[in-house]
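Run log // design_07
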């Protein structure tokens, strides 16, 4: 085999290793979520070490209507990529759906300027102001 033949094999080998590194955390997350006992699957929704694995596990949990686990996984992914607006939007909406209002309040100020979540974020911030007794602030919101 010539040196140019070795060069052609290297990218394919690299892609296979990269794919394996991406698929392994996802498979681990899926096996946790597909446990025989649904309660044990929820109890084991601890974040993974891989941001990509957390994101994919969160999407899987969301598709199975397990918003609690989805929030946990998306929050872990968001910790690795805090500027990701799409991830912020999804995490925020899932927090609201799961009743994790206090955690959603942390994301609300930045998402009040996003078209997808502006109305919900503004409403949440106004409700927080009402809760604190700031009627004028809530009205302005």
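design_07 sequence
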């Amino acid at each position: 085999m010539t040196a140019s033949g070795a060069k052609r094999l290297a990218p394919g080998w690299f892609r296979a290793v990269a794919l394996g590194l991406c698929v392994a955390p996802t498979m681990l997350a899926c096996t946790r979520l597909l446990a025989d006992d649904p309660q044990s699957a929820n109890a084991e929704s601890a974040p993974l070490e891989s941001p990509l694995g957390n994101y994919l596990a969160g999407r899987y949990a969301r598709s199975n209507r397990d918003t609690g686990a989805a929030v946990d996984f998306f929050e872990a992914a968001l910790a690795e990529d805090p500027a990701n607006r799409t991830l912020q939007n999804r995490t925020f909406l899932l927090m609201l759906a799961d009743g994790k209002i206090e955690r959603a309040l942390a994301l609300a100020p930045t998402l009040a300027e996003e078209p997808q979540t502006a109305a919900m974020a503004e409403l949440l911030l106004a409700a927080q102001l009402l809760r604190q007794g700031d009627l004028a602030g809530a009205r302005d919101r």
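The CA atoms of residues 61 and 70 lie 5 Å apart.
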